[in-house]
Amino acid sequence: MQGRKNKIAAVVIAAGLLMGLSACTDAEPEDEKYVSPTFNTEVVTRGDDGKPIEKSTEKVEAEKSELSTAEAIEGKDLETDLSTSTTIAGTYENGNYYNPFVGLAIQSDDIWRFYDAPGVAEATGLTEDEVNDLWYGVVSPHSVKTMTCCIAYKKDTGSNLIISYINPKLYYMQNMTAREYLELSSRSVKGAEVKNVEYLGQVYATVELPEEKEGTGKRVQFAMRKDDLIVLLTYTLQGEDTIEEAADHVTRLIVP
Fold first, then answer.
1. pTM, full prediction
2. Cα R_g (the chain), whole angstroms
3. Of 52, 68, 82, 105, which has the most beta carbons under 10 Å away?
4. CA–CA dist 8, 126 (Å, integer)
5. Which of 198, 169, 157, 222 lies closest to 63 in space, CA to CA?
């Protein structure tokens, strides 16, 4: 598969907590869709006694983000009932990616495309079977440290967006918040500042990380705690690409 896809390197930061991907363009991956089986996306966090833990009602102050101001996509308007037919990893439909667990949709076009399972496997160091097991719900993200749900990339520049889940429990940091995660993973980056923003209808912690060396790209990360997982959106921007342009194809997904 070497030479047929964008070159992507996995960068491990903060004692293995953070996966970052950088890319350059030489060829694009083949288009390959998967259709997920029926799988309940609801996740209930339980304590040691087995009882559900109440979600915190504490309100977090956040700045208003101007990203992804496009009209939200209503799940009821899609051909597939995503609330019952997708796994926690999300699913592809008509070339687009929908993730009800996170509440976002990525719309592909002639410029933005998706990596297939072999492409994600090569980028993350997993096998194709391991990626498909996660995508199809055979293996739960609650049993692995990091799960890559989707990689979208821009054909002309190599900028990309990675959606992944981090399981802090398996890093012995069960109560880690999204903000604490970003603060830890960016602590060695001079000038990195973590703040809270409203993005895609939810509160995310976010941080901008400058290009470490030529060709690796600038990264902008958004993280939120979703039940007992940390949802991580990592934008890697190449060349003159901006976060506004990269986020333009991502929008909010509303599932009743």
1. 0.78
2. 17
3. 105
4. 13
5. 198
